[in-house]
Design goal:
The structure is a single chain. The protein is 77% helix and 0% strand. By secondary structure, the protein is mostly helical. The protein has one domain.
């Protein structure tokens, strides 16, 4: 009968049915075929699957990303990255990656990065004469940073499913995101040298100094709070004073990216200091985006706000439907002891963590080709987590590895959403877009190997703060 569950799911997926409906229908077929489980359990489990406080972060992080795109904050991020690294060889390729790193600290999704910042980056690279394949490839690769550098929607889903601290997962993604960026920037440098790409903006000490000063101002914010805490200033006063200086200094607003760069500092700093939970951090991201768009930059109209809200409702409905369907499917895999059987088979084959991580990576890369990340996480966690715990692998480390594998799956057929978004943005066929992305799997897979087999890359920050 377990074969009925899996065969039904695969058959329904192959017929073209959306993954959420395929999982729900396969679960219902199994329940009706066995006759041992009441039919209403399907609905009961699906409702329980989305009755979770951490899942409240999903619509708010999606809304924050939409507001950042709609309010034109992505343009300010792009201009900041251009001033910082645009003068180097292959400059706009580096700008693409640096811009994605910053935007990743606000949106939490790869698709928001590709659809928002990616649109600006591809057009700019085309205008500067870069081949469309190179522009699409680097944009696709850099979009994977969205869910790795915190905040991250997949980390929220994984933390809920695996009962792992979402705050630790967020911190665990910081250094892996930097490692990925370094590998991608080295790849850009290689292509720039090989193909003779030059710089894309004139080197300016004024522009570089301004961009550097913006970074210093942003980093000075948490440093000032720390100094005031050492002086035994009450934390509320310290934060209020720092914000007062930040918002009251008109000269700071001449630096266009300072306020946008503050978003990841507020989110990560707030969670690390225990001021708010990851779910509350999502609300803080929305409030900050609204403040920038409505009060500071005046780029967000009420009509744009309504559109961003409607887009958020549509995306959230899709995500939560997948979560609900995957909940009943994963529950059936557990109660039918499929997870136990797979765990026993794997542990009978090997008890070495390194070998298991290799096999798990291959499995997750394969699954990522066919399943949307949210569904894949909710299905794979009940199967793989018992093995992870028995082999002594840190679940935070494994969570980052799992999410990175599934983000790579977003870049290629048959269900790669980033692939389809960029094909539409660049006006290319899916086949041509796929070929453009393939070379960029090399730095991503190199990053995956490093992050998989050097756990300290992931665990160093969480161990310092938790």
């Amino acid at each position: 009968m377990t074969g009925t569950l899996l065969a039904s799911f695969i058959a329904l997926m192959a017929s073209g049915l959306p993954v959420a409906l395929a999982m729900a229908a396969a679960s219902l077929i199994y329940v009706m075929a066995t006759g041992t489980i009441p039919d209403y359990v399907v609905i009961h489990r699906m409702v329980n699957g989305i009755d979770s406080f951490p899942l409240l972060a999903v619509p708010f992080f999606i809304l924050a990303g939409n507001l950042m795109n709609t309010a034109g904050i992505t343009n300010r991020i792009y201009n900041f990255a251009l001033a910082l690294v645009g003068w180097t060889k292959g400059g706009l390729g580096h700008v693409n990656i640096v811009g994605s790193m910053i935007f990743a600290g606000m949106s939490g999704t790869a698709i928001a990065d590709a659809a928002g910042l990616g649109t600006i980056e591809i057009k700019a690279m085309n205008d500067h004469g870069y081949p469309i394949e190179f522009s699409v490839g680097v944009t696709a690769a850099s979009a994977t940073l969205g869910p790795i550098i915190p905040p991250s929607l997949p980390f929220v889903i994984y933390g809920m499913a695996a009962n792992v601290s979402i705050g630790q997962l967020f911190l665990g993604g910081v250094l892996p995101g930097i490692v990925m960026s370094i590998f991608m920037m080295l790849t850009v440098a290689y292509y720039a040298h090989k193909r003779g790409y030059g710089s894309d903006s004139v080197f300016s000490w004024l522009g570089l100094s301004k961009a550097t000063l913006e970074i210093v101002v942003v980093l000075a914010f948490p440093f000032a709070i720390w100094l005031m805490s050492l002086a035994e200033v009450p934390i509320n006063w310290a934060v209020g004073g720092a914000f007062g200086v930040l918002l009251g200094s008109d000269w700071l607003f001449n630096f266009s990216a300072v306020m946008a760069l503050m978003a990841p500092v507020i989110l990560i700093g707030g969670m690390t200091m225990g001021w708010f939970t990851p779910t509350e951090a999502a609300v803080a991201a929305v409030v900050w985006a609204l403040f920038l768009g409505l009060a500071r930059y005046h780029t967000l109209s009420w009509r744009m706000l309504v559109k961003a809200s409607m887009d958020t409702i549509e995306t959230t409905s899709t995500v939560l439907l997948i979560v609900a369907a995957a909940s009943i499917f994963a529950w059936l895999l557990t109660v039918t002891h499929v997870a136990d059987a797979i765990a026993s088979a794997v542990l009978g084959f090997t008890d070495k963590p390194a070998v298991f991580l290799l096999l798990a990576n291959l499995l997750m890369l394969f699954v990522g080709c066919f399943l949307e990340p949210t569904a894949a996480i909710l299905i794979l966690v009940p199967i793989l987590m018992p093995i992870v715990l028995k082999l002594g692998i840190d679940p935070v480390h494994f969570g980052v590895v799992m999410v990175l594998n599934l983000m790579i799956g977003l870049l290629h057929p048959p269900l790669g959403m980033v692939l389809f978004v960029l094909a539409r943005v660049a006006k290319l066929s899916v086949e041509r877009t796929t070929m453009a992305i393939l070379p960029w799997l090399v730095p991503l897979l190199a990053s995956l190997i490093a992050i998989t087999y050097v756990p300290e890359i992931t665990l160093w920050l969480p161990r310092r703060f938790f």
